[in-house]
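Box S2. Input/output pair 1.
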Amino acid sequence: MSKRKYIGRHKTEAETILNKAIGKKIKEARLNYIILDKKKTCSQTKLANALNPPKTFQQIQKYEKGKNGVSTIILIQISNFFGKPLEYFTSDATELLGQAKSTSNSSEVAPELNPELN
């Protein structure tokens, strides 16, 4: 019996931009979150343990670097943990996606969908 080859899923440019932007905001929120009794910022481990089901600090690290995408449910939990609205985490991402679309080559769009060619 032969082993099946692993075929990884390649991310699109838009997914990569989105993951990095959201990850940057997660890290920013974590570093700005002060634990009052200890006067320290929130660690990746503390955030990971606050999620349901608990994650590892490595997973939080991957979210922050944009290597892994954050599911909607996890993003809502992170938003609730830090007491910030979802828009805080997604605002930069939507702006960056808009910029990426405006700089892409418009001739790649099907002629019937491209208003510049009609």
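Box S3. Input/output pair 2.
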Amino acid sequence: METNTNELYLVNDVTPSYPVHPGGILGEELKARGISQKVFAETVGLQATHLSALIHGTRNFTPSVAGKIASGLEGISANFWMKLQKQYNVDVRRKRVD
């Protein structure tokens, strides 16, 4: 069967209409699990203001923060958060070039 390569998309070739900060995903995950930001911040050892800044996209994930976040969310690794942050950074740069 012949494949039309014009119909295939690689994730790295797709630029979202706007970059999505990983903090927004974290906020949605906390909501879905019914966990308050304040309780989560205390649980993982972050200042509530730091967690809020992450969720609102005004602070970026670092390996240390990603590790803390992962320790409080079963099934989501620190590597996942760092990959999201890296992709966000790439998407922001792409949007600036466009």
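Caption for Box S3: The mean pLDDT is 89. The two ends are 36 Å apart (CA to CA).
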